[in-house]
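WARN no homologs supplied; continuing
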Amino acid sequence: MSQVIPLGPGARMLTTREAALRLGVSLRTVQLWVEADILPAARTPGGHRRIPHNAVEALALSTGLGGEPVPRALAQRQAALAAVPETQSAAPASRDAVKGTRPLDVLLVADDTAWQQRCEHALLPFGPSVHMRTAETGYLALLQIGQRVPDLLVTHLDLPGMDGMGMLRTLERCEQMAGMRVLVLSAASDHEIARRGGLPTCAELMRLPVTPEAVAVRVGRHLLGQHAG
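OK structure emitted
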């Protein structure tokens, strides 16, 4: 969480909007990354959030986000576009326009690379109708979701670092969660899941152990639902 710190004259800090422009993501995404401690931030005595420039650059370099710093004129134009409410500029409208003509975008979050590969193999029969991305932790999944919201998020709850529950709690605070379907894979009991805060209402639970083929069947149902819509 951000805290109040004095900013010296030599400190190079960015506003959340400047950080969003540099990383090529929405303002709300940067705010969520700050809340999830993906980006460090401070608050000025006036209550404004500031993010260290070197932290933004490190994230851009380590993940491939954004590009070279944008020219001032382009930055100003992007800032004007970013001022439009996300409900007007978010992806769902454009998605609806091409629904049925593009692949189902699936993000699989699991720290077992062998499991990821088996799932990729199980999805091969769908051909180009399904595109699968992978992430090993909740932290990396949030970065990917910030770049592009998947149609279907398939996640284990037990993950290193930020676990699946922490990732879902962060996503619940984002408007993008409303249009995203979630399939949770867990061996935890209902009591244990409730103790950890429960699952979002949009999430479907599959009990582990399950086979990659069983996951592929659920993905196929979502694919059929997309085409039917």
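Strands lie at 3-4, 13-14, 42-43, 49-52, 104-109, 130-135, 152-156, 181-186, 203-207.
OK
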